[in-house]
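Query structure, 506 tokens:
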């Protein structure tokens, strides 16, 4: 996953984009970037690290202009630490375009060949986002007028061309020099994208973001979700245009957004993330009542932070005390998005510390949002035992993660997933718990639908192995796993930053 922002403002855009990236920091901690436009010149700064570490005062001063896009990166394709793959990306032909992308293309290799052999375009990195940018640039050129000028309909036609060529998940923000801000979403609506507005004396400002929480905190009013397959274009004078650009679009939001990825104070596709997590706790409580009526749980303890609403509701429904048993060090990165098992294992005890009085001589039910690789769960179970727990039970608000996610979440290797090829009993043994309770997939879907009954389908591929784009084969999974292993073997410790002023072609 990544976090993206696009802004058309009446005042300088740099501070608003920076503040928005801080709000979306949970969506990516490996790299950050901002691109603004002033006249016909793009100003771009990006680099590896947290938002607060990438940007300094001198960088912010150089980001001039009243419009821009921004990105926080959590890599799922390409290198985890190559600063050249930080976004936004830029091309100067045909019009000068900068682009930020959340998601993952599933036909990147095919597109790379087409770009080189047919479109005569060169891609500099292994990032699928740069591929997407070049496809968009080619389609804009192909649909422009004889004098390489763009009308609004030309832009929407170009997005239609992107939809025809690109497969996978993508929510995109882009700026076209001389024209305006473009945003669009894939035809399956896998990754979220929301639109907000803010009325000022000088005119209406628009903000497009991955999550509604960015709108809330920056003073923008939520307008609506950008629909699957839809493109939104806002010119630099603030004129708003939108059009459906895909054939037969359907909404299939990633259900893992509600389990873990999104902030609880966000509303995505009309669904309150916080409310869904409460419902997940209720359904877990119902399962325990149904399948383990004679349980001996003394206390329910969440593994902070995203599991807290589920754990609280579970405890309330079971009539069992809810306690905070772990204190989180907020200055350590989220373990789920840290590269490498060794670093992940090392970080757990740096990140969490147990409050012994809440564990000593008790049968404890630990509640987490999910179990992906199992390394973190194993360490936390052992921490509970070391703190004096008599028995340690473990509940997951999500079903077993048995399949790779290829639409923008870092779960590409089957052998890294603890649930692949193992029964629940075997997983319980692997993490060292006395009992393991998983959420059922249908109960998870019901929990999310309770917040918005109009949602019929979800992308739940990491749980059920059904890939909505229809192009993910066992051979494809083998290829991405091999590429992941090669990427690990060839990591480059380059952590430089890039600061550019780019004069766009008219």
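Result returned for the query:
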């Amino acid at each position: 996953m990544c976090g993206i922002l696009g802004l058309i403002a009446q005042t300088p855009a740099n501070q608003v984009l920076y503040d928005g990236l801080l709000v979306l920091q949970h969506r990516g901690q490996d790299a950050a970037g901002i691109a603004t436009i002033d006249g016909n010149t793009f100003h771009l700064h990006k680099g590896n690290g947290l938002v607060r570490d990438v940007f300094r005062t001198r960088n912010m001063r150089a980001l001039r202009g009243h419009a821009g896009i921004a990105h926080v990166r959590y890599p799922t394709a390409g290198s985890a630490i190559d600063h050249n793959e930080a976004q936004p990306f830029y091309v100067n032909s045909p019009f000068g375009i900068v682009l930020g992308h959340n998601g993952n293309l599933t036909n990147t290799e095919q597109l790379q060949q087409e770009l080189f052999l047919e479109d005569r375009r060169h891609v500099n990195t292994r990032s699928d986002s740069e591929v997407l940018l070049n496809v968009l640039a080619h389609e804009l050129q192909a649909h422009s007028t004889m004098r390489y000028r763009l009308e609004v309909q030309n832009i929407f036609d170009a997005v239609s061309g992107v939809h025809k060529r690109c497969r996978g998940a993508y929510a995109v923000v882009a700026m076209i020099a001389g024209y305006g801000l473009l945003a669009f979403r894939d035809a399956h609506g896998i990754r979220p994208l929301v639109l907000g507005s803010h009325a000022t004396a000088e005119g209406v400002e628009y903000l497009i973001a991955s999550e509604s929480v960015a709108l809330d905190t920056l003073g923008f009013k939520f307008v609506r979700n950008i629909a699957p397959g839809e493109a939104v274009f806002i010119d630099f004078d603030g004129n708003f245009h939108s059009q459906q650009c895909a054939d037969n679009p359907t909404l299939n939001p990633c259900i893992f957004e509600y389990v873990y990825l999104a902030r609880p104070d966000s509303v995505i596709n009309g669904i309150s993330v916080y409310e869904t997590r409460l419902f997940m706790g209720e359904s877990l409580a119902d399962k325990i009542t149904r399948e383990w009526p004679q349980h001996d749980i003394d206390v329910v303890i969440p593994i902070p932070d995203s599991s807290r609403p589920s754990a609280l509701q579970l405890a309330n429904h079971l009539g069992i005390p809810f306690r905070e048993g772990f204190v989180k060090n907020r200055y350590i990165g989220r373990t789920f998005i840290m590269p490498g098992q060794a670093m992940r294992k090392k970080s757990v005890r740096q990140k969490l510390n147990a409050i012994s009085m809440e564990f000593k001589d008790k049968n404890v039910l630990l509640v987490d949002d999910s179990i992906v690789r199992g390394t973190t769960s194993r360490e936390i179970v052992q921490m509970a035992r070391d703190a004096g727990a008599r028995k340690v039970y473990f509940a997951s608000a999500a079903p077993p993660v048995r399949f790779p996610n290829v639409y923008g979440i870092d779960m590409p290797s089957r052998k890294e997933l603890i649930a692949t090829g193992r029964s629940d009993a075997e997983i319980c043994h692997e993490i060292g718990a006395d009992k393991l309770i998983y959420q059922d997939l249908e109960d998870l879907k019901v929990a999310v639908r309770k917040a918005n009954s109009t949602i019929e389908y979800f992308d739940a591929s990491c749980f059920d192995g059904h890939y909505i784009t229809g192009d993910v084969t066992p051979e494809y999974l083998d290829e991405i796993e091999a590429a992941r292993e090669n990427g690990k073997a060839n990591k480059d410790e380059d952590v430089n930053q890039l600061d550019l002023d780019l004069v766009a072609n008219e």
